[in-house]
Amino acid sequence: MTTYLVTGASGHLGRLTVLALLDRGVAASDVVATARNLDAIADLAALGVETRAADYTDSASLKEAFAGVDRALLVSSSAVGERVAQHANVIEAASEAGVELLGYTSIVGADSSGMILAGEHRQTEELLAASGLPVVLLRNSWYLENYTAQAATALEHGAVLGAAGEGRVSAATRADYAAAAAAALVADDQAGRIHELGGDTAFTLGEYAATLAAESGTEVAYQDLPAAELTATLVGAGLPEQFAAILADSDLGLARGDLLTESGDLSRLIGRPTTTPAEAIRAALA
Ligand SMILES: NC(=O)c1ccc[n+]([C@@H]2O[C@H](COP(=O)([O-])OP(=O)(O)OC[C@H]3O[C@@H](n4cnc5c(N)ncnc54)[C@H](OP(=O)(O)O)[C@@H]3O)[C@@H](O)[C@H]2O)c1
After folding, report:
1. Rounded to an integer, what distance in angstroms lies between the CA atom of residue 136 and that of residue 161?
2. pLDDT of 35-76, one tens digit each?
3. Ligand 1 pocket mutation, candidates 5, 19, 39, 75, criterion most atoms within 8 A of CB
4. What gap in Å lies between CA 221 and CA 31, rounded to an integer?
5. Which residues line ligand 1 (CB under 6 A)?
6. What is the helix (H) or strand (E) element at residue 53, kind and residue range?
7. What is the pTM of this model?
């Protein structure tokens, strides 16, 4: 019997990964889901999953949570700027538990990406390599939801805003990335593997806007802005300055091809084509 642990189960990707493990036929009693606040994953407990409290900043809680675990997925923390220290604590707990496989949700092209957001992932990958643990890297490109969650705003203003020029992004749904993580965790040939994960068909933001227009029947077009102007617009819409600047920097990375992969790794891992932008838009508008 193999016990699987998924961190960040209160978040979107962690929860979907737990559900994807169950979909693959892993017994709920063989799955441990962790979160800072167990109330946030009570729905998973109701499915028979064991829930354990673990905070990435609290080594003792992590060590308790990892006890008896065979394979684990570290879902990267959302605390940008604090992630390396947090992930180091998780890696230490996984080492102490002697896990036979540790997955990590990194960023596509982590070793070459020039995006600010890639730095913490690269450092985490270095910690993982130094740990000597059997590791599988799930290097995710952008979520399609980064765009579809903004669909209503884009339709209201008739514009998809960005600073990505003609760059192409291999965005895929969180559910597809979660299915890939679950597939990698249950397989027996994954130690040492690096998956560059993204949607089957990369697209420009202009193409995304055209698909949104076609699916919604509403006029909407891509408006390319200088990065500083995009940052100022996002701040004007209520985003904190630092976060807005990181998003604009990510669009510059997108323009360079930092979020592009044509590896085919995602559809290969999940055994089917990835969800298309049109399908994701349809689901978001429904
Ligand atoms: N590829 C992309 O487009 C993209 C976009 C956004 C983020 N990401 C990265 O991918 C990760 C997963 O995405 P997501 O959509 O699932 O993000 P999410 O819904 O924001 O989930 C983030 C998870 O991190 C947990 N977390 C934060 N600080 C923690 C701590 N100190 N201890 C334990 N858990 C902590 C959160 O727990 P709480 O519920 O307790 O806060 C939550 O479960 C993100 O955290 C981020 O690193 C990728």
Report:
1. 35
2. 999 999 999 999 999 999 999 999 999 999 999 999 999 999
3. 75
4. 44
5. 8, 10-14, 35-37, 40, 55-57, 75-79, 86, 105, 140, 142-143, 146, 174
6. strand 50-53
7. 0.98
